Each structure stands twice: as structure tokens, then as C-alpha cells.
Amino acid sequence: MRPEKTAIVEEIRAWVSGASHLILTNYKGMKVAQVKELRHRLAKQKSAFHVVKNSYFMKAVSDLPAIKIKEQLDMPLAIVFGKGDGIAVAKVIDGFAKENNVAVIVSGFLEGRRFSAADFGRLIKLPSRSVLLGMLAGALAAPISGLAGVMRQKVASVVYALQAVQELKSKSSNK
């Protein structure tokens, strides 16, 4: 392989190996202005969008254990990679694809695990990570707050009983 091609493959390998997510998209039909807009949106998510030649991509990932691609890619390929929240990035790509009817997610990898286009479709429908963490915190706090309410009620019952005894004693001592 010529040195310039080897350098391109090494650059792709560096992008992919340092990323927490990698999403493969079919960019067929995208105009330059649309690519620029998508790159701008993805930059907000700490991700990058690069059009790569399929053969270079396959050579770059062939020895990476986290990425196993066995099928032959027979479409125009762009890769989206970065360090941020991969599901949020997939939501950005999906929203852009619906607005412009381009950039379809083909497959991808999140934290070393492979996801199909259908898997991404299901992940995109989930609430964001922060919302899910909030729901988890609420679910964990509910039994504790319920227990605190019960304990507060038991203490209040004891206080009411002591007040009743005190009133009885004061009435009997007044007679």
C-alpha cells in the first residue's frame, strides 16, 4: 500500500480506536451544505462526521477487537465518532435524517458493543440519560420517603398518646 493510503488508514484507526461511539451512516444524496450542517450539530455533541472510503475503513478496523465488521459495505459510507453520549448523537443523526431525508444510520458501536440500525431505532426512542437517571433516583427514593412518612406517623402517634395521658392526669389532679 502506498504511504499516503497507509497514512489515511492510520488516521481512521486513530479516530475509531479513541472513540466511545462509532456510527456508520449512508450519506447518499447529501449536499455539501447538509454535510456542513450535520457536522455543526454533531460538534455540539463532541462528535465528528467524516466520509471515508469503505476499503480504507475496513483496513483500519480489521485489527481492532472492539469492532468486528464481517459484511461487505456496498454503500457510500460516513463515520460518526466521538467521546460523548452515543445515543444523543444517534438522536441528532436521526433528527437530521428525518428533516432532510438523508444520512441513514446503518449500524454502529457504543462502548464496544455492536448495534444494528433497528437497535439504534429502539435506543433513539428512549429518554435521555439524564432523564433515565432522574427516574432511577426517584424510584430509589420512593420507598425511603414512604418509610420516613410511616416513621413520622408512628412518632406522631406516640406524641398524641403521651398528650392524652397528660390531659387525663391533669384532669384527675384537678378534681
Looking at the overall shape, the CATH architecture of the largest domain is: 2-Layer Sandwich
Largest sheet: 5 strands, antiparallel
Distance between the termini: 110 Å
User: Going across the major beta sheet, what is the strand order?
Assistant: 2-3-1-4-5
CATH H-level superfamily of the largest domain: Ribosomal protein L10, N-terminal RNA-binding domain
What ranges have pLDDT less than 50 throughout 5 or more consecutive residues? none
Which CATH C-level class of the largest domain is it? Alpha Beta
The gross shape turns out to be rod-shaped
* CATH fold call of the largest domain: Alpha-Beta Plaits
* Helix/sheet category: alpha+beta
| Percent helix range | 55-70%
Q: Which band does the percent of strand residues land in?
A: 15-25%
Radius of gyration: 29 Å
Q: Number of domains in the coordinates?
A: 2
Q: In total, how many beta strands?
A: 5
Helix count equals: 6
Q: Report mean pLDDT, rounded to a whole number.
A: 84
Along the chain, the helix and strand elements come as HEHEHEHEEHH
